[in-house]
Amino acid sequence: MDRMRIRWRGRWRLRRAATALVALTLLPVAVLVGSAHARAGALPPLAPWLHTDSLQPQDIDLPVAEALKRSEASNLFAPFGWDGQIVSGPFVEFDYSPATGEIVGYFAVNGTSTTLLVNKIRVADFSPTSTPLVSGPTFVASGSGVSLVVHDEPMALLEIRSQGQARTVVLRFPTGTTEMQVVYATDWPRSSLAFTVGATHGRLILGRGSLTVNGTTATAQLETEDYLALRAVPGFVEHASERTAVLEAFASGRLAAEYDLIAMSNGGWLENSAQYQIGLTATSSHVEFSRATVTFGVMEPRAGLVLLAFDPQTMPADPRHRLVVTESGVDVPEAANPVESLYSLPGSSSHASFTRLAMNATVLVVYLSDLSATPLQVESIALPTSGLDWPTELAMVAAAFVVSVAAAVMFRRPHE
Question: What DSSP character marks residue 189?
Fold first, then answer.
């Protein structure tokens, strides 16, 4: 009997030790589950800053693919593909001739929906100086004294810049294109062209040269160091009213620059940007999760609008977060009317302001009374949570239950 009692007590001690070990193992897990839910509204961890060009290819393939997936899902931009003739992306598609620099069939795309924006775009006397380069969301072709950049984004941005000499660009729009009216101005841009193709409407702007229309053919005479750009709001695009306001700001010269910014998990970021005014450049940019900074360099002080767009993961803007915009460290107030800001003339106010557009991305339009007074910073700050949510409470109850059971087993006296 004594021998059996000794064996039973030995087994009981082993069970008690095992139970205690399980309790000690599960308790931190339960507490961590609870604290993870309690931090659900907190800022995501800031990624360490690393320039992507300092990383090895194997280090950036997956982060780039994941970031591009978020960008396309947010309708910001997507990568191009090119087989030597057809340039295609989720938002833009066209045929390109490397020998002549001619674009044929410039389409806006959305899934199976397509809209022909321009039949043909030809730069006179184009002489290629390098092989066209496809880099993420941009297609870049260079010729003698001219460069052409196409962006794979929902408004089908196309840019042509003359470099060192005057150039002529001819655009042939589809038959049936209407409302082709040229508007002239004394400031930048000197001329713009409105056009409508079915349910799609677009704008063509020319910085300093002359723009003429004959039927459905537009001819742009670019001066030295001039700028020509085309954008459109396809009939199938989402958030058409907001994009139309962006288009009007672009056409009138109010929109100075635009940046689509996607943070990557390895600490870098993806960027699709454009500057719509001569003499305006981004001297630096820095993007990480929940924080971004853009610094401009301008030849002379000027007012203007800057559009900053992020996917929701890069810059959360849900009810649990507060967006803070600062210019040179000073808070920029939020405007009451989102779309009205895009129609306000630069210089109409001496105070900076920003507004958020109703899109499925975090899209901010910032008015700056002086573009040289940057850096411009955007930050998403988590709001404090009130009380514990049900997953947290459940996790804490589970933790208490595990500890109680463990204590009962550990301190129970063995039956004689």
Answer: S
